[in-house]
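User: Sorry, what's this?
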Amino acid sequence: MDTSEHHNERIGKTMALRNQDFDENDEHTVQATKRSRITIDISPELRRRIKLAAIENDLSISEYVGQILEEAVPDEVSTTQRQRHQIPDDFLEQVYRVREQVIRDSKGELFEDSTEMIRQMREERTRQLTGES
């Protein structure tokens, strides 16, 4: 066996070993094939920092940013669960108690319309600024 045949045989064995290390049904392999591209604009400084951080973690920029996004962005299930958060049974009772307390403290008098008060204060401030007062 000459040197090149021996080298080719070694590479073949190495490749066979590497292929054995990966199961085609491996979850990571399946996820890696189902990827989509996203493009964002960032400053050169931020890109440099991301690149350095990726290198420090022995990752590609794509892998590094992907990990950050996986940690930061909630799963769809958790966002759906948050939207369906139920109000505790005693919450409305507490609201009604506070409402009754406010009515008692104000002796049943209605509050002034704050929009009218704000409009009047703006007019007064405008007169002050223009020297009309």
